[in-house]
């Protein structure tokens, strides 16, 4: 089996699981408990918080809230910071932002979507035009989950703040965290991250918060996470996240280089008569979107799957969303948007795996194309 | 005081000499519906009574029983000692305090000092004294309070009737193969035939890799909902991908659906032979889509050798079908947006009134027998 759907979820780091397991089996105490055993666990949670945060931010200026998933982090910022005026975002957002925006509309908040350029990144000029004195929140995805397009969020945030200093700036960094070199800058107020894309387990994620910015809880409870996220902490998941992040950031540059070379093998090896590459050269090398015009991405994915290669599709083969909205927003014609496959890498993939996968992908596309003639 | 559920059945009493057989099958179906839940079903004359069950699951039990074909009505009642004061106090608990009512007694226990008319009068009188806003109306009461004095010294007291599924016990009217597509119509067709007592085997065709696993899961879910009425179901799953590819390659595009349906019918008949099904059931409704014209049905019927094809929805409007689908709980699943029959091969302009000769001519380009054998060799069977 060749796993090339790492942007959906990545294999959990086994060493990190082993190292954290005693928090599940032996040191299971509630970190809010006042006895020594509980307090000790509380300290473990706090050290994880600081260690993870320090990878991307100055811990004096920012803090970190543990949440259950990237979607929760996104939702918390949106429903906390965009309660009035208008909310500016992009057409290239993850569903956690896109669908929350739809709910904001129902709540009477105006939502404005900035266009994308052909390479999948946001049209900055268009975005800045949408920001005005009434803009309460701007959210721009860091690395798009379908195309891998990278937005220069530090620069965008700065320009947004120049136009309206009181606007809050958020970015969904789920596909960037631990993969693309990045540090929080002063103009970025919130940043969503998730554990399971970088070797953590599912069910744990986080939100980086500027200490200057207010936030409200989505989940009210017993005052955990500084009162910003109720619910007893999943200490095992938090510690496993910390250990996995430690490994990931240690190898970030090395992994990036390796994944770039894997990405290059696929770009060079795909049959040019059957495929068009949708991801731009500047996109994150972890994600490669390709399209086989005239073929359905999902049918092709099934055939590739039967040959032991696991890749993602742009969207499910359903009559309601036949095409990915993000791919269409990049200006891709419908006939290209239908046959989208998303190949996403991890540093664990080998050159041989990727070479074999390209061969299988080419063969399946040729076979399907022949059947449909 | 113990909770009981009274089950009344419908047409079974019409079946003269076969009555014993019908009642036996009905009992098996009731038992199967409650499998996994603590209960006992007894059969005093003319009705079935569920006793000694897990009272915290009363609603679930009633819901399961109300889906068993043959159940006319159900009542949740109370079982008490046959004693006038106990009976009155229990009736009082379920009686209304205003409006109109009547008491109706059935006295199997002939040793009870009051006869049924006297007991009606006694209980009714006490109620009127306790609740002055109540009135008796023996012709058209808002509430009927039933008292059932049984021979074993216990009395059943109940009031409201819950409507059951009606029909005949499944298994008393043979077996049929239902073509189950995943749309709105076919589960309704299966429901209607099962209601008349027929045991159903489902048959689903898929076109993987052109259709997805979610579409298949959806059909399994539909079969599971139907199985709630039919007491389990076997689902046969057959791939028609290669057949579609061959039609696409060798035959006129507008004939795709017409030819595919003929293959489906042939496969359905073969599977029926293997499983002992005596008919094929489809959800076709006249004129609903291009393939459901009388010419289309003629074309697909022409390949069936021996079995009748039942089309219980042939004269129904879509809105009428949807109404039943909602009632039986299949609608929400049917409208999940997974494609059931691969639309990749669907022509823009399918032939609406296929001419049998032309259809057969187009089909002659295919090795029909070999394609059917190949499809059947990959048959999967799921027991639900």
Total helical elements of chain B: 13
CA(first)-CA(last) distance of chain A: 30 Å
Q: What helical percentage do the residues of chain B reach?
A: 25-40%
Gyration radius of chain A, rounded: 21 Å
Quaternary arrangement of the chains shown? heterodimer
The helix content of chain A is 25-40%
Structural class of chain B: alpha/beta
CA-based shape of chain A: globular
What characteristic shape of chain B results from the CA principal axes?
elongated
Number of domains of chain A: 2
CATH hierarchy, class of the largest domain in chain B: Alpha Beta
Compute the number of strand runs of chain B: 15
What's the arrangement of strands in the largest beta sheet of chain A?
2-8-7-6-5-3-4
Q: Regions of chain A with pLDDT < 50 over 5+ consecutive residues?
A: none
Residue ranges of chain B: pLDDT <50 for 5 or more in a row?
none
- Provide the residue-averaged pLDDT of chain B: 93
- Biggest beta sheet attributes of chain A: 7 strands, mixed
Number of helices of chain A: 13
What does this entry look like structurally?
The complex is a heterodimer of chains A (373) and B (384). In chain A, helix 3 runs parallel beside helix 8. Chain A has 373 residues and is of the alpha/beta class. In chain A, the strands form three sheets. In chain A, strands 2-8-7-6-5-3-4 form a seven-stranded mixed beta sheet, with helices on both faces. Chain A is globular, with a radius of gyration of 21 Å. Chain A is built from 13 helices and 13 strands. The mean pLDDT of chain A is 95. In chain A, strand 3, helix 5 and strand 4 form a beta-alpha-beta unit. Chain A folds into two domains: 14-249, Type I PLP-dependent aspartate aminotransferase-like (Major domain) (Aspartate Aminotransferase, domain 2, 3-Layer(aba) Sandwich); 252-372, Aspartate Aminotransferase, domain 1. Chain B has 13 helices and 15 strands. The longest helix of chain B is centred in the C-terminal third of the chain and has 20 residues, at 256-275. The mean pLDDT of chain B is 93. In chain B, helix 8 (256-275) crosses helix 13 (368-377). In chain B, strands 1, 2, 3, 4, 5, 6, 7, 8 and 9 form a nine-stranded mixed beta sheet that branches. Chain B has a six-stranded mixed beta sheet with strand order 14-13-10-11-12-15, sandwiched between helices. With 384 residues, chain B is an alpha/beta fold. In chain B, strand 11 (199-206), helix 6 and strand 12 form a beta-alpha-beta unit. Chain B has two domains: 2-163, VC0802-like, CATH 3.30.2130.30; 175-383, Rossmann fold (3-Layer(aba) Sandwich). The A-B interface holds A 296, 298-303, 305-306, 316-320, 371-373 and B 208-212, 214, 245, 248-249, 337-339, 343-344.
């Amino acid at each position: 089996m060749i796993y090339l759907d790492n942007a959906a979820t990545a294999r959990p780091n086994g060493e990190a699981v082993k190292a954290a397991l005693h928090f599940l089996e032996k040191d299971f105490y509630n970190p809010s408990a006042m006895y020594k055993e509980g307090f000790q666990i509380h300290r473990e949670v706090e050290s994880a918080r600081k260690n993870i945060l320090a990878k991307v931010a100055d811990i004096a200026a920012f803090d970190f809230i543990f949440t259950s998933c990237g979607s929760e982090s996104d939702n918390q910022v949106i429903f906390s910071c965009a309660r009035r005026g208008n909310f500016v975002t992009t057409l290239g957002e993850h569903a956690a932002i896109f669908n929350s925006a739809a709910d904001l509309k129902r709540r009477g908040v105006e939502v404005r979507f900035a266009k994308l350029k052909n390479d999948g990144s946001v049209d900055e000029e268009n975005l800045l035009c949408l920001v005005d004195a009434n803009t309460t929140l701007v959210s721009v995805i860091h690395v798009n989950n379908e195309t891998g397009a990278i937005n220069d969020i530090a620069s965008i945030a700065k320009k947004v703040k120049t136009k309206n200093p009181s606007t809050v700036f958020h970015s969904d960094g789920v596909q960037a965290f631990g993969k693309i070199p990045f540090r929080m800058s002063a103009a970025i107020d919130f940043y969503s991250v998730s554990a399971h894309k970088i070797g953590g387990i599912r069910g744990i994620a986080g939100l980086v918060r500027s200490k200057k910015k207010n936030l409200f809880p989505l989940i009210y409870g017993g005052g955990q996470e500084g009162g910003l996220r109720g619910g007893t902490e999943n200490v095992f998941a938090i510690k496993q996240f910390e250990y996995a992040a430690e490994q990931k950031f240690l190898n970030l540059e090395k992994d990036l280089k390796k994944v770039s070379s894997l990405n290059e093998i696929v770009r060079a090896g795909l049959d040019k008569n059957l495929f068009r590459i949708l991801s731009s050269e500047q996109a994150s090398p972890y994600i490669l979107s390709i399209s086989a015009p005239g073929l359905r991405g999902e049918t092709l994915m099934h055939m590739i799957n039967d040959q032991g290669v696991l890749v993602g599709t742009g969207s499910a083969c359903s009559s309601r969303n036949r095409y990915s909205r993000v791919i269409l927003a990049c200006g891709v014609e419908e006939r290209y948007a239908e046959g989208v496959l998303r190949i996403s890498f991890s540093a664990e993939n080998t050159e041989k795996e990727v070479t074999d996968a390209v061969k299988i992908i080419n063969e399946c596309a040729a076979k399907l194309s022949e059947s449909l003639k | 005081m113990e909770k009981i559920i009274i089950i009344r059945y419908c047409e079974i009493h019409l079946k003269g000499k076969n009555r014993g057989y019908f009642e036996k099958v009905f009992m098996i179906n009731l038992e199967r519906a409650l499998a996994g839940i603590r209960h006992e079903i007894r059969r005093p004359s003319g009705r079935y009574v569920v006793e000694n069950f897990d009272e915290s699951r009363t609603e679930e039990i009633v819901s399961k029983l109300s889906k068993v074909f043959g159940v006319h009505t159900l009542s949740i009642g109370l079982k008490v000692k046959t004693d006038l004061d106990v009976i009155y106090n229990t009736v009082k608990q379920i009686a209304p305090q205003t409006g109109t009512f009547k008491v109706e007694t059935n006295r199997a226990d002939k040793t009870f000092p009051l006869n049924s008319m006297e007991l009606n009068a006694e209980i009714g009188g006490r109620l009127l004294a306790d609740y002055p806003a109540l009135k008796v109306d023996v012709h058209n009461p808002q509430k009927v309070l039933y008292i059932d004095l049984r021979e074993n010294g216990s009395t059943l007291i109940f009031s409201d009737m819950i409507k059951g599924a009606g029909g005949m016990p499944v298994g008393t009217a043979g077996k049929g193969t239902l073509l189950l597509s995943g749309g709105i119509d076919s589960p309704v067709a299966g429901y209607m035939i099962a209601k008349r007592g027929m045991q159903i085997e489902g048959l689903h065709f898929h076109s993987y890799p052109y259709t997805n696993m979610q579409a298949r899961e959806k059909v399994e879910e539909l079969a599971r909902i139907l199985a709630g009425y039919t007491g389990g179901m076997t689902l046969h799953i057959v791939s028609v991908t290669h057949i579609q590819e061959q039609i696409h390659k060798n035959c006129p595009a507008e004939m795709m659906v017409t030819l595919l349906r003929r293959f489906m019918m042939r496969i359905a008949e073969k599977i029926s032979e293997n499983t002992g099904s005596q008919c094929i059931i489809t959800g076709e409704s006249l004129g609903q889509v291009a393939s459901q014209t009388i010419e289309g049905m003629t074309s697909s019927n022409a390949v069936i050798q021996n079995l009748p094809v039942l089309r219980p929805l042939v004269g129904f409007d879509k809105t009428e079908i949807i109404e039943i689908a909602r009632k039986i709980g299949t609608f929400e699943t049917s409208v999940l947006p997974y494609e059931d029959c691969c639309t990749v091969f669907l022509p823009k302009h399918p032939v609406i009134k296929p001419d049998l000769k032309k259809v057969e001519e187009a089909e002659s380009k295919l090795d029909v027998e070999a394609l059917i054998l190949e499809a059947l060799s990959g048959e999967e069977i799921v027991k639900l």
